Amino acid sequence: MIKKIIIIFSILFFLLLGGYALFQISKSRTFQFFGGLINRGETKEKVVALTFDDAPSEYTDEFLKILAEKNVKATFYVIGQNLEKYPDFAKAIIENGHELGNHSYSHRRLILKSQKFIKNEIEKTNQLIRTFGHAGEITFRPPNGKKLFGLPWYSRQNNIRTIMWDVEPDTNFSGDVEKIVNYTLANTKPGSIILMHPFCGETCTADREALSEIIDGLKTRGYNFVTVSELLKY
């Protein structure tokens, strides 16, 4: 009886351990089982890519004005449903010289989903992105940064590069402008990909308020801003 109990607890332990390991892998910024994953550019030059998730929204114009004033180009990872809801803002992003990336159609986590579901989430959004004039490669960023088996496998089969990040200030310091700025300036390195979430309403106010200071601070440190596709050329 005791031997059976030990075996059962051992199995449960290894199942829990395996589950925890898979959970960590699913949110890893630097590893996935299949396909190409990039969380920063491999360069010693002082270039960085500003990336914004969940675009577009009613706050797009406000953000575009800041970028225009600072003469900075960025990459907007867009949700297909938001493109349909705010087509004029999507056009404005392109017209201002910025880049669109794919952030899925519905922003549902693409873990434990069928290949058909994953294909629809990615391809439907790619088609929308093309309608707004985006040319060239469309990179992909998983919703909530989560991926495990199915999504990387699909990406590999379709030559889609997964773009993560190495600087994520608002996750650590949500709502605190000063800490968001200081964290970003302290952790940005040549080739960094910076992730921000400026489009979610009042809870994202700090991201919008921090942007100008982040840009000014990085420029003072000698950094130039490029889109993700430009960064990948380094």
Topology:
Blueprint (H helix, E strand, L loop, with lengths): L1 H25 L10 E2 L8 E9 L4 H11 L4 E4 L1 H6 L1 H9 L3 E4 L12 H17 L18 H8 L4 E2 L5 H4 L4 H11 L5 E4 L8 H16 L3 E3 L1 H4 L3
Parallel strand pairs: 1-5, 2-3, 2-6, 2-7, 3-4
Your description of this structure?
- With 234 residues, the protein is an alpha/beta fold.
- Helix content is 47%, strand content 12%.
- It is built from ten helices and seven strands.
- Strands 2, 3, 4, 6 and 7 form a five-stranded parallel sheet that branches.
- The protein is globular, with a radius of gyration of 19 Å.
- It starts with a helix and ends with a helix.
Quick synopsis:
The chain has 234 residues and is an alpha/beta fold. It contains ten helices and seven strands. 47% of the residues lie in helices and 12% in strands.
Overall CATH class of the largest domain: Alpha Beta
End-to-end distance: 62 Å
Overall structural class, as computed from helix and strand content, comes to alpha/beta
CATH second-level architecture of the largest domain? Alpha-Beta Barrel
Order of helices and strands: HEEHEHHEHHEHHEHEH
The name of the CATH superfamily of the largest domain reads Glycoside hydrolase/deacetylase
Radius of gyration: 19 Å
Number of strands: 7
Largest sheet: 5 strands, parallel
The assembly state of the depicted protein chains is single chain
Shape: globular
* Strand content bin: 5-15%
- How many domain modules? 2
Mean pLDDT across all residues, rounded? 90
- CATH structural fold name of the largest domain: TIM Barrel
The number of distinct helices, counting runs of at least 4 residues, comes to 10
Poorly predicted segments: none
How helix-rich are the residues, as a percent range? 40-55%
